[in-house]
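Weekly modeling sync, notes
Attendees: S.R. (lead), two postdocs, one rotation student

Agenda item 3: backlog of single-chain predictions. S.R. asked that every request posted to the team notebook include the full sequence so nobody has to chase files. The rotation student volunteered to paste the first one in as an example of the format we agreed on. Action items at the bottom.

Example entry:
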Amino acid sequence: MKKWLEFVIEQILSNAVKYTPKGTVSIYMENEDTLIIEDTGIGIRAEDLPRVCELGATPAITGIAINAQPGSDCIFAAEY
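Predicted structure, as returned to the notebook:
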């Protein structure tokens, strides 16, 4: 489980940095068991948010083509 948790956190941080060319990425603990990672990046269109965790979904990110398996990070995060 530790391996997958490390993978998910690494992917989320990588995406936060990648899609935040200007602005901030914040990481903090909200309480003993809640890690918060938030950024001021370009974001995902509101209409695509319900599909973000669908494996293979391709939400548009302000004109950027995604060359990965969208949704997989979210599925792993939901599992663990």
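Discussion: group reviewed the output briefly. The longest helix spans residues 2-18.
Action items: rotation student to repeat for the remaining queue; S.R. to check formatting next week.
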